[in-house]
Amino acid sequence: MARASYRNSDVDLMARMMRAEAEGEGKLGMLFVGNVIVNRLVANCLDFADLRTIPQVIFQVQGGNYSFEAVQKGSGFYQRARESERRLARQNLEYWRQHPAKYSLWYFNPYGPCPPTWYGQPRTGQFKNHCFYEPEAGTCASVYSG
């Protein structure tokens, strides 16, 4: 059973975001970004309550800005998805989860050392330039089961 329901257009959108956010970090980096996207979809808590589709996750606006910087700044996001990226997106949607993004709802590239917390959420680890953060214990049980 898939982690989330999806359509082919969702796979393309997610693949484009994964490339735009982490192409320089290779397939594993893109999978980690995809993991966060799916986690936000299944979490239904905190900043991600009531998100029900991949487009809602990708185009979510928080504090006047898109949650994913690549939507407004990344020309890579507006290029067509490649089949290799679509395969990675399908992996995330179907089953793939791995530390440090296994339960993460946030990531960012600090251009320096990863802070131990980000907006009060604990760091789970780092992969290349991205730091990953998951919800504080007890604040979002659905991300651990979805």
UniProtKB/TrEMBL annotation:
Pfam families for the chain: Hydrolase_2 (PF07486)
GO molecular function: hydrolase activity
Highest taxon of source: Bacteria
Keywords recorded for this protein, A-Z: Hydrolase
Keyword Hydrolase annotated: yes
Domain Cell wall hydrolase SleB: 24-133
Protein name: Cell wall hydrolase CwlJ
Protein source organism: Ornithinibacillus bavariensis
Lineage start: Bacteria, Bacillati, Bacillota, Bacilli, Bacillales
Gene: cwlJ_2
